[in-house]
Structures are given as C-alpha cells and as structure tokens.
Amino acid sequence: MAMSVGGEGGDDEVISSINTTPLVDVMLVLLIIFLITIPVVTHTVPLQLPKETVQPLQTTPKSIEIAVNRDGDFFWNETLVDGPTLLARLKSVSEQQPQPEVHVRGDQGTRYEFIGRVITSCERAGIAKVSFITEPPARGG
To answer: Where is the protein localized (predicted)?
Structure first.
C-alpha cells in the first residue's frame, strides 16, 4: 500500500489503491515456468502397449416385420402365414435374448380388427416392443 506522508501542498489524503503490476508479472513468470516444465514431467518409461479391438458384447437382433393387407392376411417378413402360425412364431421369437422388435405394417384400407389380432398375438406371445410403420404425409398439398 502506498501512502503519502506529509508533503508539499498540504494534502493529508491517504492513497488506498494497490499496484497490481508486480502481481501480473509474477503470474506471467509462473505461467511460463509451467508451460516449460509440463512436457518434461509427462515423459514416462517408453512401453509398447498391446493392441486390442473392442467387440460389442450384445448384438441387436433383426427386427420382425409383420404386414397386414386389406383382406386381413398376415405376412411374416413377406411370407404369408395364418393366425395360429403367427402366434407360434411370435412365441418362439419372444424367447430370444435380447428380444427382437416387431414392426407392424398395415394397409391404409385394413380394418382395425386385423391389426388388433396382430397386437393381441404379440401380447399373448410376450413380445415387449411393438411398433407401427407409417409413411409421412405428402408435402405441398
């Protein structure tokens, strides 16, 4: 702290400002020292580490696609199946770990009853995830 003690002019006012220039100088010197010493500190014993590739532990199964046409026919990945066969296949798929997803595609003119049968079969078989595939509306109309 600088203080003006007596002097010419008769000002007895105390100057209470701190000169920060030496503090900044010290900080810049410390910064330069750290920048120079950090690369020296990081050098370690040279080793050749083993190369290893990471394989995923769990693969996702292929999803099942069930299509329903206007007449209420069920298609398991483009193969025509009846109701009991659909349920049997869904039961066998539900036992897989991890369980695949079921994607339901219904024709726009299909009655809800037929889509409901597919959902009921999925529920009875124990399928955890069922989703519906739709097309986005046409733009510009």
So the answer is: Cell membrane
Listing DSSP states for 38-82 in one string gives HHHHH------PPP-PPPPS-PPPPPEEEEE-TT--EEETTEEE-
77: domain CATH number? 3.30.420.270
In a domain, 16, yes or no: no
Which range of residues forms the domain containing residue 114?
A: 64-132
CA 62 – CA 48 distance, rounded (Å):
40
pLDDT digits (tens, 9 = 90+) for 20-48: 888 999 999 999 998 888 776 666 677 67
pLDDT digits (tens, 9 = 90+) for 115-139: 999 999 999 999 999 998 888 777 7
